[in-house]
Description:
There is one protein chain. By secondary structure, the chain is of the alpha+beta class. The chain has one domain (8-139): Roll (Thiol Ester Dehydrase, Chain A). The chain has helices at 8-18, 58-77, and strands at residues 29-35, 38-43, 50-51, 55-56, 84-92, 102-111, 115-124, 130-139. The strands form two sheets. Strands 1-2-6-7-8-5 form a six-stranded antiparallel beta sheet. A two-stranded antiparallel sheet has the order 3-4. Strand 3 (50-51) and strand 4 (55-56) form a beta hairpin. The protein is globular, with a radius of gyration of 15 Å. The mean pLDDT is 94.
Amino acid sequence: MQEPMLSAAELERRLSAEFSEAFHGDSGLSIVKVWHRGCVVRLGFNPKTLRPGGTISGPTMMMLADVTMYVAILASIGWEPLAVTTNLNMNFLRKPALGKALTAECNLIKLGKRLAVGDVAIRSEGEEEMVAHATSTYSIPPANR
């Protein structure tokens, strides 16, 4: 099995420096684990992300899916901050458990020279059932890879 190009600690350091508006100490985001073609990212519970009805907002879960996909790609190809989302499809399956963090696991289905396609499963921390499922495609700029 191929090793990841970047560790979780290195990715957190670089993301904090490059995307400080989203990846900072108060964001609740942390990279739990990375491997070649995948990762797990955690988003701590924040009552500010609740929508009417007492559930975590859709945009919050979409952000988590997108960040998780980005981390999986960077862990697999190395630091390429200009990789961008070209498609994100989200299915909201059930209401997340109130007061619990969310964990998202991404597995890359395709990792080509120019495109990456991934599958992201989002769960309330410690629970088996998914609360949301996403598929995403990223465009990878040409590089000397």
